[in-house]
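Morning. Coffee machine broken again, so started the prediction first thing and wrote up yesterday's gels while waiting. Chain of 181 residues, entered below exactly as on the submission form.
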Amino acid sequence: MRKKNKNNKQKMFVRKKGFMMIEAVFSIFITGIALVAFLNVLGIMYKAEFNKRDYVIATNLAQEEIELVRNIRDNNWKTSGKAFDCPGDPLGCHVFPSNGNLCIDYSMTNSISCDTKDKRQLYINNDEFYQYDSSNAHATKFYRYFILSGSGDSRIITVSVTWDNNEIKVQDTLYAWADAS
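Came back before lunch.
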């Protein structure tokens, strides 16, 4: 009997060398699950960051369009004394149509009629400026248009920028506070 107990005690204290195959497979499985979860969270974070970047770009593009229209209003005051109306359309003066169907070129040298439902694609040139002209530029995913409404001494400008099934609208009111009488 004593001999039997002694063998059992020896078996209890015998140290195993290495892992068994099932332990190794199980640890690889757990590590794989943790890695997949981590990579999934990382992908979601990157996507959220790119979405935030696109919203910032779209907001700035919308604000830029408002500034371009404001600049045309100011140039109209300078050339004709009227903010929104240009009798005879003198050089450098742009008539603001009542239906708002006006697209502005970045060069500020011309404004062309366009349908407000036809959102114009923006291109980015080698100097990384956004423009409507596709020559020497790369297409972007951003489309922009604006609508002018109102009459008299004020106009409401609504700018819409769309991209990848997203849209941002910015609205401002422009006043003809310095029109000559």
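The chain has one domain: 31-175. Going to sketch it on the whiteboard this afternoon.
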